[in-house]
Amino acid sequence: MKAHYIVQIDKPEHNHVKVTLKLTRPKNKDTVRVFLPSWSPGSYLLREYARHIRWFEASQENGEVLFHTQLAKGIWEIDWNKSDLKTPSDSFEVSYDIYGKELTVRTLHIDASHAYLHGPAYLMGVVGEELKDPTIEFRFPSMWSKLSTGLSDISEKRNVFLYTAKNYDELIDSPVEVGCHETDGFEFLGKPHHIANYGELYPHRNNIKADLKKIVATVAQHFDNDIPYDQYLFITHFVPKLYGGLEHLNSTALQFDGRKLVNRKDYLNYLSLAAHEYFHLWNVKRIRPKELGPFDYLNENYTTLLWLAEGLTSFMDDLFVYRAELSTLEEYLEVVKGNLEAYLNTPGRLYHSLEQSSFNAWVKLYRPDENSKNSSVSYYLKGGLVFTVLHSLMLEKGASVDDLLRALWKDFKNRPEEGVSREDVYQMIRDIAGEEVVGKFSTMVETTQDIDFDSAFKKMGCELKWIENQNPYLGVDWEWIGDRVVAKAIALDSPAHKAGINSGDEIVFLNGYRFLREDAEKLGTLMMIDQNYELIVGRMGKLVRLEIMPGKSPKQLKEISIVNRALAEKSFSFLKRPLPPQMA
Questions:
Q1: Domain boundaries in the chain?
Q2: What residues in the chain have per-residue pLDDT under 70?
């Protein structure tokens, strides 16, 4: 089915975009259903994009109105039998207007400064019909001079912005940045890599273009420079307090606080984000769980394999930055230390396995609340650490996770339409490193058993150094309302949890004295371990009396120290080895 889209932004300051979709009615069909997706691949939450539609119309090419009705939250049906037509025609169009004022990588944002257009949030498809080689034209105010996208440009005139894609999936997988943003780029292996930056940056001395090229070259090296695109686009929104990214078939959308690039740690975090999304070109956009494609854009697409999609990527992203010689081994290990601390401070790791965390992404990871850390664990966080341990186990067998990457890519090339299962991944690991490694890895994936991180890092020339903290421990994350102290989140089985403190409680008095922010910040000088204290908390307009006994703070990870530098550098470096004969 042929389709042509016209995307029109007349008054961006009003935050709306109008879309017209021109179609031809399929033969012998009296009804056609169009839909707007409810979610975005790579971001597992039903976002109900149709809620932003202000009006919807359907008509023939000659202007005669077609009868239509809304069947569901994102589905409209056009019915020719119910239409009062003087001159019936098979050529028709649907038009609709959408509001967009949410600046994330998963939504629309249109204002006087620019438009960021995220495909699933504004481009309708046709139920049960394949759109072959759809075309799309963008019309926008003349004050805007640039349009950046990974779509194929078929414009014949400079003042016309006309593009095409192979199908609907590819069309909506191509974000668009329109405005007066800064553009740059580089070539790698003869292919153009475009950079589109929106927003403001504080002065810094980093060479973003050169460092992105190093990231690209380093990641591609892991796949024998087999890069699966003709061009690539990095879109970055440099806006205060924003952070995130979303992968696409030949592009990525990133968001980062441009004020922070002057700080080395933050800059390395930006490079890691870019590496994460760029690596997704292979892992997720091609190598994917069986359940993630073809997509059902209207309903949840459940999978237990997000530990591969995101966990493996989370292991590799900071490692790519190190392997590109953009960070030191110490800086890399400091990031891993932070991840390990976050994991150990997540009580939910005792209740959800990686598989369970993946399956529940739709209702947990993307819908966090004050109890999330107590009920589940992030498949990004634990997944990355589990692949660190797998890397250590494979090194003992003369292999590494790098061998798994190449095996996954080879498998994709052999059967690109199928996707992989858990057993497929297990078999690859088995072929590379043996049954013992598969057994240990599967335990980390399928259960909530403790993981021996100390041994894993020791085998890679490092040592986890712990310190005992003698400060009193309550297990509360505070938030401040002026000088007032409110409990934001309560750690499971902590003294605060046992005392009955609830999220949202204001701590009003401690042993009869007013409790304020400065008191919470110096709690170690006011309280003692294993002593009883009386709290008066404000809860839903009432004062509630509680007793609490501070405990001993959990041990803390001081550092991941390098004991054998030669072994550590070898362990975390890229060492290409031939695949086993059965996989070659």
A1: 3-179, 182-279, 306-465, 472-552
A2: 583-584
